[in-house]
Amino acid sequence: MPIRLANVGIAVADLDAAVAFFTDLGLTLIGRAEVSGEWADTAVDLDGNHAVIAMLQTPDGHGRLELFEYLHPEAIETEPTRPNETGMHRVAFQVDDIDQALEIAARHGCHPLRGVATYEDLYKLTYLRGPSGILVMLAEELKRV
Fold first, then answer.
1. 0.70 cut: is pTM over it?
2. Domain segments of the chain: what residues?
3. Is the CB of residue 64 less than 8 Å from the CB of residue 8?
4. Which CATH class is domain 91-141?
5. Which of 30, 46, 78, 87 is deepest in the core (most CB within 10 A)?
6. pLDDT per residue over 79-123, tens digit each?
7. CATH number of the domain at 8-72, please?
């Protein structure tokens, strides 16, 4: 059976702030909608489910990120996921220039957790906290000379 990844969905506290962060990093907003009704209740197992969503796409057209802000039931604030916890871990993006990506992230108040690391002269990478505490990895592939 063929299978492909449709998108990664992330609940956020402020949809507009999250959309601004990810579009500034280079994703494209391809649509926004408000969802509710019996079909939505059934799909996610929440009675009275009502959310606003935004679908974003990577420039290569292969990756999509669905962000959603719950209007009902009220969103539940939790502690941000730690890198070593089980469950949804992070969303990762390969960028052409990690320094430029970090400048963009900083304009949104988002900074590396510890710093930028170099992995075997192959990648420069870092983890940072995006909007709503989303763990985001940025990686720049290093060019071999």
1. yes
2. 8-72, 91-141
3. yes
4. alpha beta
5. 46
6. 888 888 888 778 999 999 999 999 999 999 999 999 999 999 899
7. 3.10.180.10
